[in-house]
């Protein structure tokens, strides 16, 4: 099976409700979905939601990187020579992790189809189901309480609260939500780089004194501030997770060598695809550090790929793959299925995706 052609297209899917973090506000998921077509006619699906504020990749940069620079280098390559294709993608240009992730996912999908194996089994086959949390956007405390109660009524047992806009307000938000939902439901916080290191220590200690039962706190400080992240981790009891700081395997290796965080959030668009996500999981496992599998605002193509690596690896113990349920529609046929907060992987080869409705080719 040889790679014959790469088609680039996109889908635009409205969100059920505006997605708000300390970094941005979004009303629809714009996902670039590519089809890597083999000479046998098989199609490998991959995706790249351009998330400029996090990865630096825009829609135009993703398209140009795939169409003009990386894509042409893998045309004609044998799919069974996976490692050779992946190193070609990696070495074609610096950065551009989202474009590389889209190609990496699609090539893995084809490889799975070639050998008749679902991707989560290719990556280790540790679990075929997992529980995802649900993200609650940062808003006024009353609105966040309402959204949290709604989520619990829908069956969610883990909430990820977006905070990081204003310290006093953040305390009000978390306190109000914990009071409203009781002690059973897990609360994770994501500050999306919104605090300064000392400010983060002060606020997290306050959360601890108030006994709010916070499971973990994601990315309290700026992405590049590894020393600041370590300062926070060293000075609070609560587990600190690196997200925007933990880009690819090299950053994760550096963070864990410094002991700058307690947990790692893996995302395919930061890592540059499944093969680097697997490396990150292996580095973290070597250091005894558990991982969460996260996502961007994206279609079920990327969610299925992310769930496949999370299903494969034992060390990925937490799942934040709620993007597909934040969308008002699901145009992707096949792949993972959702029952409330439960994600079930398909046993079909590769990603198990057979079609994407409303896919518009970009020529
Ligand atoms: Mg995050």
Describe this structure in words.
This protein is α/β, with parallel strands linked by helices. It has two domains: 3-116, Enolase-like, domain 1 (2-Layer Sandwich), CATH 3.30.390; 121-356, TIM Barrel (Alpha-Beta Barrel). It contains 14 helices and 17 strands. The strands form four sheets. Strands 5-6-7-8-9-10-11-12 form an eight-stranded parallel sheet. It has a four-stranded antiparallel sheet with strand order 3-2-1-17, with helices on both faces. A three-stranded antiparallel sheet has the order 4-15-14, with helices on one face. Helix 10 (249-258) runs parallel beside helix 12 (274-286). The longest helix is centred in the N-terminal third of the chain and has 19 residues, at 97-115. The protein is globular. The mean pLDDT is 97. The structure holds magnesium ion (MG). Magnesium ion binds next to loops.
